[in-house]
Amino acid sequence: MTLDVDAVKAFVTIADLKSFTRAAEALGSTQGAISVKLKRLENQIGQRLLERTPRLVRLSAQGAEFLAPARELLAAHDRAIAGLSAARRRFALGIANHVGGAELPTLLTRLHAHDPALTIEVRLEDSRDLLAGFDRGDIDAAIIRREDDRRDGEVLATDHYGWFATPDFLHRPGEPLRLAASSPSCGVLNIATRALAAAGIPWTEAFLGCASFAVADAVAAGLATSVFSRRLAPAGTIEVSKRFGLPALPPSEMVLLSALSDARSRATLKTLISAFREHHRRPANAASSVPAAAVLGS
């Protein structure tokens, strides 16, 4: 018996994502096409691999037994394909500090599974630095916060920001608000300070760190408040805009920039986009212990 590798890949992807729709998106296919591949595989091995209802997709008993061997088959296939390549491909990916968080391991895992011969170079910097690097051609693709009036790029998701501090952080009306930031020239900081100025709220720089995680540590230690993406606020902090009468902050689009046009690179970008969007469908957790990346420093 010779198994269809594409059909096995469809089965494993559906099992991992527990959704025909998401699996189709991840594979750059349609729900109907992967359903046909799964049915062909089930007919070939004479076993029902997945139980499907209008609200649930789960492994059958036979599917649970077949999943590990199916992964081994795909891994062996990928190794064989990779061995045919004389040189590894390089893919330089820039991710803005305030964008990359819990999804970063997912993105890297999905990219490696898609193309094991891919050498992934990741740059974690401010959006403006990555934008400059992309325009110079130093980066193949960049996921950044939408800057100013620039409208190119594919929108991946919308991020929402808030003011975060520890529950015991004190700010008295009339006193300058103590802020922590990692870059005095960052776009998010400019938006936040303009909002404070419009609201007539004075502020002072209480902490300036060289990296976003240092800012998160300063806020978690109760030294200051700062602006974070609501999905990436440091553990132990709470949203304090209502408590201290701080102004609301506008949402921000996260976009993917890329000038890659060859078929292999487009397939890589599809995998990247699918993994990012799939992760952002999950409920946000403002108390996450993920290293903060959406701070005043991007």
How would the blueprint of this fold be written?
Elements: H1 5-17, H2 20-26, H3 31-45, E1 50-53, E2 56-59, H4 61-83, E3 89-96, H5 103-114, E4 118-125, H6 127-136, E5 141-145, E6 154-159, E7 161-165, E8 177-181, H7 187-198, E9 203-208, H8 212-220, E10 226-229, E11 238-239, H9 241-244, E12 252-258, H10 263-280
Parallel strand pairs: 3-4, 3-5, 8-9
Antiparallel strand pairs: 1-2, 5-12, 6-12, 7-10, 7-11
Give a written overview of the molecule.
- With 298 residues, this protein is an alpha/beta fold.
- It folds into 2 domains: 5-83, Arc Repressor Mutant, subunit A; 90-298, 3-Layer(aba) Sandwich (D-Maltodextrin-Binding Protein, domain 2), CATH 3.40.190.290.
- Helices cover 41% and strands 21% of the residues.
- It has helices at 5-17, 20-26, 31-45, 61-83, 103-114, 127-136, 187-198, 212-220, 241-244, 263-280; strands spanning 50-53, 56-59, 89-96, 118-125, 141-145, 154-159, 161-165, 177-181, 203-208, 226-229, 238-239, 252-258.
- The radius of gyration is 23 Å and the shape is elongated.
